[in-house]
Write a structure and sequence with these properties.
alpha+beta, Bact_Sigma-Reg, 2 domains, 386 residues, PPM-type_phosphatase-like_dom, 27% strand, Phosphatase 2c, domain 1, Stage II sporulation protein E (SpoIIE)
């Protein structure tokens, strides 16, 4: 690691939470003769790059900042450098530096520093509102605030998988949500198709999410995770409120997908350019009845398979009295094959917004998962049938 990168890292770790950008600017002025440093964060809708300080939002898709964000690579344009501010696949935004040195080594150092900035923003965000506040182009509803705070992130990349999700309408989402976690050998993924309005919907989803996390962290198998969450919701609401969810566990070594369908959204497989819905066994939503016994299903994934989970808010989106529907959805999903998961999710949401000519009225959740296959390890072979 070069001395400029080391200096920047030290400055970041020693800086007050609200002064990360200022400290980086001081270091870059000395090490790379950079005169101006700007942080552009992607907003909740994935439709604008918003400056941390004063400045104009970047919304045009052809802008160098968006090309940097989309392709996750440094972009040099008109004397300015645009660097991806990302960590572990979570895209937070773009760092714009002016002027940018005409030197590939220096550009590489600046890219490393932008990554270090992403890690430090993630570390300090729990203790300051500076970065959260600057990410919104308008006020979040209270329910949406609760939903976004509960998410594990919006995208993630690991050696065996890539993953992304999005909630809509981003600034007013109520009950739809998703959650994920991995331990290097297994990935757990849950999507929730929430019901109800406002804070009541968000509170129900929160209860279900935390109950599932509690069961997962207690080492329970997938069906028992569903049963624990089911009982927690029933104990509180006695069947008057319930929650539709899809629980999945992916063995990252073999590609075996275990699923529990509790009144869930659609689970769609994209393989070799063809789209098909996986046949889930419909079971009762969480909290509908007391002591529901849930059953697990198993599917074998192939290296390169892509899974989409979409709630009914996607299929039922209506524009000009016409429903979006399964046919349009499948056609669009087929076109996402070359895209990264976050780009695929963002493109689908963008297509929905165009279809309804604005923000979605009903909640919608979209999650995209790519299983890239087991890494080369002794004793691990390609899954059967692939």
């Amino acid at each position: 690691m070069s001395e400029p990168v080391n200096r920047a890292r030290r400055a970041l770790t020693e800086a007050p939470a609200d002064l990360l950008l200022d400290r980086i600017a001081d270091v870059l002025a000395e090490t790379h003769r950079v005169e101006r440093v700007e942080l552009l964060q992607v907003d909740y809708r994935l439709s604008a790059l918003l400056p941390l300080a004063d400045g104009e939002p970047v919304t045009g898709p052809g802008h160098p900042a968006w090309r940097c964000f989309d392709h996750q690579t440094p972009i040099v344009s008109d004397g300015a450098g645009y660097l991806p501010v990302s960590m572990r696949g979570e895209r937070r935004g773009v760092l714009r530096v002016t002027p940018v040195p005409d030197d590939p080594t220096a550009l590489g150092e600046l890219t490393e520093i932008a990554t270090a900035l992403a890690h430090e923003i993630a570390a300090v965000t729990a203790g300051t509102d500076v970065y959260r506040t600057a990410r919104r182009s308008r006020r979040l509803t209270l329910a949406a605030e609760m939903q976004w705070e509960m998410l594990p992130g919006r995208s993630r990349i690991r050696p065996s998988f890539s993953l992304a999700g999005q909630l809509e309408p981003a600034y007013a989402v109520r009950g739809d949500s998703f959650d994920w976690s991995d331990d290097g050998q297994r990935l757990w993924l849950c999507t929730i198709n929430g019901t109800g309005e406002g804070v009541a919907a968000s509170m129900l989803t929160s209860l279900g999410t935390y109950a599932l996390r509690n069961a997962r962290r207690g080492g329970l198998r997938l069906a028992d995770q569903a049963a624990l969450a089911d009982q927690a919701i029933f104990d509180l609401h006695r069947g008057d409120r319930h929650l539709a969810a899809l629980l999945m566990e992916l063995d990252l070594r073999s590609g075996t997908l275990t699923a529990v369908d509790a009144g869930s959204p659609r689970l769609v497989l994209l393989r070799d350019g063809e789209v098909r819905e996986l046949p889930l066994e419909a079971q009762f939503p969480l909290g509908m009845f007391e002591a529901t016994d849930y059953r697990e299903q198993r599917f074998e994934l192939c290296r390169g398979d892509r899974l989409f989970v979409v709630s009914d808010g996607v299929v039922d989106a209506t524009g000009k009295d016409v429903r979006y529907g399964e046919t349009a959805l499948d056609r669009f999903l087929r076109r996402t094959g070359p895209m990264e998961p976050l780009d695929a999710v963002r493109s689908l949401i963008g297509d929905l917004r165009a279809f309804v000519a604005g923000d979605l009225v009903d909640d919608a959740v979209v999650v995209c998962l790519d299983w890239t296959g087991p890494q080369d390890r002794p004793g691990i072979s390609t899954p059967r049938g692939c």
